């Protein structure tokens, strides 16, 4: 009997030790929520993004579109290159060292594309350039690089047609009745494909519409509203009412010029100066509605940002470039987002581009 009791005590003690963790515990099922979170984290790729400068009016809207379209789909490393190519090169190196799965690059200087391509190619990381187009030679040097942007000449043609149509509709704008447009032109960054094309094709299109032109001034405002105002101040002091039209490569410079014009009493009573820009940013749309800006050319920031994310996300995940999208690639490895003329008649189209 005593032996039986002793045996029972040993068995009871052994069972107690196992129950208190003295042996291996049975595996437990993982929390489904935690497992889903872990799987989602693995599925979301890292994409490195640089913007040539965050405070550029138009690029600020492209950046917002990139952030919106990447939300929940990709982890972005966003960099402000502050208009410094050396800084951008360092940012690219940093992102590559963090093993991003793809790069989305808004170049400071299009001529620096070869340097960035070389860095990315060494690590076999795909690159989506956007808004500033590298040369065809640079694009052909790497099979994993593409471009998202526009057809630069298209914006110039559309702006020129807008100017010609509005000039014909308002003969009173020809102040000296000589049948010519005496114009001043605010050019973007010298060498920038958009600046060169908009300048060239806007004037060529006006002339092709049977209107004579006379250039009073053409200088670079570097896409900047403050520089646009400074140049317009100087031109008004020099030419006064001899200026009959202000043509700007972008809305920021157009709005700067308008500030200078307003200070001289324009847009009050019968004193008017026709001004056109490019981009159709919200501040420009406000001026179109007020009747102070003749019109602009919609540079679709929303779709440029979306296309950039769509392509960068696909290649980061090892998918085909255009998989699941409606974008089309041209013979220059580029997705082209079309421009559209914007006046008071169709302003809602541009407004819709900025709606949430």
Automatic annotation (TrEMBL):
Family matches, as SUPFAM superfamilies: Periplasmic binding protein-like I
Gene3D superfamilies: 3.40.50.2300
Location of this chain's protein in the cell: Cell envelope
Domain Periplasmic binding protein: 47-320
Keyword Isomerase: no
Keyword Calcium attributed: yes
Source organism superkingdom: Bacteria
Classification via CDD domains: PBP1_GGBP
Principal location listed in the UniProt entry: other
Entry GO CC: outer membrane-bounded periplasmic space
GO molecular function, one term: metal ion binding
Signal peptide: 1-19
Keywords: Calcium, Metal-binding, Periplasm, Signal, Sugar transport, Transport
InterPro entries on file: Bact_Solute-Bind_Prot2, MglB-like_PBP1, Peripla_BP_I, SBP_2_dom
Quaternary structure note: The ABC transporter complex is composed of one ATP-binding protein (MglA), two transmembrane proteins (MglC) and a solute-binding protein (MglB).
UniProt-recorded name of the protein: D-galactose/methyl-galactoside binding periplasmic protein MglB
Organism: Marinisporobacter balticus
